[in-house]
Task: inverse folding
C-alpha cells in the first residue's frame, strides 16, 4: 500500500456540531473529518460555510475563547479543546491568520517570535535557539530588528509564520494567508509553504479561495457549504465533482479549458502543460464559438 | 462627469523628514469614462494615492485637482460630492442602528427630501438583496451581507468617480462575481469613472480599460489595459506578476491577435458554466 495509507491519523473528528452563543443555527453540522500526518489539505467554500470555525476548533479557540454549544468527538493529536487549554494545543497546532497585521504586535520581528516561547516559560537559552531557528527557516534574519509594520505584506506573513513555528507545532493551520498579498508574493508564498512542509515534516491545513496557486502541492481538497462538508477527496476527484455539480468555487482555469474541450486529463499532467499548450487549446475554444 | 488631475505629487507621512517619500513625482489624469486599474506590489503606495485623491491626505508637493478644485483647499465633504471611496474591510465602518439609516445617511447630508430618500433606499436595497433587512441592525448581518451593505451605501450616493481599494481581498467566488456586476452596473452610466487598486489582476481585467503601475512610490507605467498585457518588461522585472489567466490572455492577444474583449467574454463563459 502507499505511504498515505500507513500514515498516522493525527486529527479525527466525528459528528462535530457547533453553534455560537446566541446564534440561531449551527455553523458546523455533523462534520466528519480526518487528517493524516504529513498531509497538505486545502479547505475551500463560500464565506460563512464554517471554514474559519473549523480552524478555531482545531486550534482550541473554540470553546476556550468563543463560547457556544460544541458536540461530537474531537481528537487533535490526542487533545480535545473542551478538556485541554489553548497553550497545550498551541504547542502542537499553529494558526496563521488572513491579515498578518492582526497577529504581529511587538516592536521588532525578533520580539514577536520570542513572545510565544516566553509565555511557555521556557529557559532563556531555549527561547534564543527557537528564535534563531524560526528566523532562519523563514529567511528573515536580516529583518530581525525591524518593526513588523515596516515589512512588506509577504514578509509580514513570513514573520507571522515564524512566530507560530517558534512554538514547534506539528500541524500548521492557515486561514486565507494570501488575501492581502500581491500576485508575485502569493506565488512565492505557495512554494515557500510547500518547502516548509517538507523540511519540517509538517501537516498543513490551508483555508484558501485561490486553489490554483496550491493545487499541485495538495493531498486533498475539502469543500464546505453551509456548515457541512460537500466533498473531501483527492484534488482531481473534487474538481471534477465541483465542475459537474456547478459548485461555485475557483476551479483552476487549466481544468476548465481541458474540460470544455471534453478531453480527459490526469491531474499530474495538468501542470506539465505549458501556458502555450493551453493557449492552443483556448484558441480552439474561441474558434469553436 | 469629473476630471481628476494628479500633478507632480509627492507625499511623505513624516512631514519633517521629507526625504522619506511614499509617493514621488506622480502625474496622471483620470478622465470621464476611464476605468483605471491601479497596480503595484504590496507597499508601493497605491492606498496612499487613493487617500490623496479623496482629500484624506494632502500632498507634500504638487497638487491634485478635481475639475477646478484643488483637493488640499477643499473639504472632504466637498470632494465627496463627486468622488466616493470604498475602503478595504468597509464593513468595519458601520455606525447607524438600522440598515435603512445606514443607507440614508449620505442622502440626508445632501439635503434630499424624505420621500425621495425612502424611494432611493428601497430601490438600492432591492438591487443589493438587502430589502428584507432594512429594519435590522447592520451588525446582525452575515459577513457577505455586511459587505453588500457597505458597497450599497456608497453606490446610493451615485458618485461621478468611484474609488475602490482591494475590493476582492478575502471574497469568495460568488461575491467576487457580484462585485464585478456591481462595478459594471456603475460604469454603464456614461462618463462615470472608476479607480480600483488591486492585486487581483484577473478581476481587474474584467472591469478596467486603463492601467497605472506604481512601484516604490513612482508611477512606472501607464496606458490602456491591452497595452499592459503586451508589455513584457513590467512583468519580467518582477514589478507585476502574471497569474495563469493573465499570462494566457496576454499571449492570446499579442501573439494571435484575438480581440481582448472577446477573450474576456469567452473566459467568463468558461467560469459561468459553473453557475
Result:
Amino acid at each position: 500500500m502507499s505511504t498515505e495509507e500507513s500514515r498516522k491519523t493525527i486529527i479525527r473528528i466525528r459528528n462535530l456540531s457547533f453553534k455560537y452563543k446566541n446564534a440561531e443555527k449551527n455553523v458546523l453540522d455533523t462534520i466528519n473529518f480526518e487528517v493524516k500526518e504529513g498531509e497538505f489539505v486545502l479547505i475551500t467554500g463560500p464565506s460563512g460555510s464554517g471554514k474559519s470555525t473549523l480552524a478555531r476548533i482545531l486550534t482550541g479557540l473554540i470553546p476556550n475563547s468563543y463560547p457556544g454549544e460544541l458536540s461530537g468527538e474531537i481528537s487533535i493529536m490526542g487533545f480535545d479543546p473542551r478538556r485541554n487549554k489553548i497553550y497545550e494545543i498551541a504547542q502542537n497546532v499553529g494558526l496563521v491568520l488572513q491579515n498578518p497585521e492582526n497577529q504581529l504586535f511587538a516592536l521588532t520581528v525578533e520580539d514577536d517570535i520570542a513572545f510565544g516561547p516566553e509565555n511557555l516559560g521556557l529557559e532563556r537559552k531555549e527561547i534564543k535557539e527557537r528564535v534563531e531557528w524560526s528566523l532562519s527557516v523563514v529567511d528573515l534574519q536580516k529583518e530581525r530588528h525591524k518593526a513588523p509594520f515596516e515589512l512588506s505584506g509577504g514578509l509580514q506573513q513570513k514573520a507571522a509564520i515564524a512566530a507560530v513555528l517558534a512554538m514547534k507545532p506539528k500541524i500548521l493551520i492557515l486561514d486565507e494567508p494570501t488575501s492581502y498579498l500581491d500576485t508575485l508574493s502569493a506565488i512565492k508564498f505557495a512554494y515557500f509553504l510547500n518547502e516548509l512542509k517538507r523540511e519540517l515534516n509538517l501537516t498543513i491545513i490551508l483555508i484558501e479561495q485561490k486553489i490554483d496557486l496550491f493545487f499541485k502541492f495538495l493531498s486533498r481538497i475539502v469543500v464546505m457549504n453551509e456548515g457541512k462538508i460537500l466533498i473531501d477527496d483527492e484534488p482531481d476527484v473534487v474538481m471534477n465533482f465541483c465542475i459537474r455539480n456547478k459548485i461555485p468555487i475557483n476551479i483552476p482555469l487549466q481544468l476548465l479549458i481541458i474540460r470544455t474541450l471534453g478531453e480527459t486529463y490526469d491531474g499530474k499532467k495538468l501542470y506539465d502543460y505549458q501556458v502555450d499548450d493551453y493557449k492552443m487549446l483556448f484558441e480552439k475554444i474561441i474558434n469553436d464559438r | 462627469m469629473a476630471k481628476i488631475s494628479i500633478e507632480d505629487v509627492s507625499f511623505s507621512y513624516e512631514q519633517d523628514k521629507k526625504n522619506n517619500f511614499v509617493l514621488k513625482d506622480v502625474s496622471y489624469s483620470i478622465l470621464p469614462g476611464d476605468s483605471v486599474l491601479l497596480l503595484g506590489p504590496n507597499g508601493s503606495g497605491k492606498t496612499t494615492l487613493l487617500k490623496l485623491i479623496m482629500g484624506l491626505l494632502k500632498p507634500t508637493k504638487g497638487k491634485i485637482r478635481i475639475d477646478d478644485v484643488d483637493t488640499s483647499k477643499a473639504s472632504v465633504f466637498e470632494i465627496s460630492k463627486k468622488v466616493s471611496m470604498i475602503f478595504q474591510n468597509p464593513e468595519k465602518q458601520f455606525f447607524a442602528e438600522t440598515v435603512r439609516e445606514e443607507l440614508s445617511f449620505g442622502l440626508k447630508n445632501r439635503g434630499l427630501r424624505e420621500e425621495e430618500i425612502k424611494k432611493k433606499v428601497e430601490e438600492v436595497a432591492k438591487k443589493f438583496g438587502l430589502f428584507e433587512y432594512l429594519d435590522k441592525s447592520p451588525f446582525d448581518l452575515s459577513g457577505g451581507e455586511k459587505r453588500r451593505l457597505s458597497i450599497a451605501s456608497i453606490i446610493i450616493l451615485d458618485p461621478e468617480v468611484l474609488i475602490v481599494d482591494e475590493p476582492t481581498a478575502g471574497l469568495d467566488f460568488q461575491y467576487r462575481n457580484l462585485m464585478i456586476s456591481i462595478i459594471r452596473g456603475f460604469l454603464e452610466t456614461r462618463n462615470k469613472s472608476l479607480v480600483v487598486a488591486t492585486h487581483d489582476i484577473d478581476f481587474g481585467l474584467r472591469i478596467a480599460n486603463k492601467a497605472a503601475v506604481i512601484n516604490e512610490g513612482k508611477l512606472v507605467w501607464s496606458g490602456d489595459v491591452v497595452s499592459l498585457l503586451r508589455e513584457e518588461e513590467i512583468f519580467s522585472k518582477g514589478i507585476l506578476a502574471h497569474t495563469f489567466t493573465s499570462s494566457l490572455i496576454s499571449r492570446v492577444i499579442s501573439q494571435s491577435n484575438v480581440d481582448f474583449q472577446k477573450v474576456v467574454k469567452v473566459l467568463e463563459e468558461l467560469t459561468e458554466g459553473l453557475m
Q: What stands out?
A: Chain B has a mean pLDDT of 91. The first strand of chain B starts at residue 4 and ends at 11. The CA atoms of residues 226 and 260 of chain B lie 7 Å apart.
